[in-house]
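Form 7-S
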Amino acid sequence: MTATARIVRSAAEGASAPPYESNRLLAALRPDALAELAPHLVLVDLPQDAVLFDAGDDVEHTYLPCGPTQASLLVVTADGQEIEAASIGFEGAIGGVVSAGFKPAYGRAVVRVPGYAFCLPTSRLEELKGRHAAVGDLFDRAADVFIAQMMQVAACNALHPIEQRACRWLLFAHDRSGDEPIRLTQETLAQMLGVQRTTISAVARALQDAGIIHIGRGKVEVLDRPGLEKRACECHDAVEAHFRKVLPKVAD
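Output:
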């Protein structure tokens, strides 16, 4: 487990912990499988910019974000530049995709929107997959959606202008945050999209002037979701459509 993650409590303790339904993969598990997993789940508080694993690390822990919590999978170049390849929120898991053997990470996983997550040793998740075919199928399908998102993001980064890309990212974040403001700085969004902060500032001002978002200190509030959708490219809708086909129970 990352040293920067604060352990709150065992997920089996007390009623103050977020419900399992706050992560859709946990919510989709059958009751018997969830009962086996519950004693190994630990609730952690993930601060912004916490590194969950780095390229080459063995992925020893799997994190299941709750509510608005969101992490990015980054590709890091030889000169230290970072760009986001995918983002993961309450609909998925960070780690836990490879089911056997040494699991070296290809990229860096960083918390972008802070909050709670359930955490467990990846080895425990592997054992559960071995005992319950439905659990293995669930995570296989989650991996398929994750790969689809990375493919779509690669196309988006290459083909679409920065305003559309920024709106695509804000739509995904808004899906996860609900009515709450998105806890995000313009500097962080610029890093994820691989552009200068001044570029993102110009995009954010244009969206705010149009009444689509409101920019606060370290947060963004979406005021006009349909307007944001019109400004975005098709990439958000394409990924969401695939998600609903492959993981309909999780999407609902």
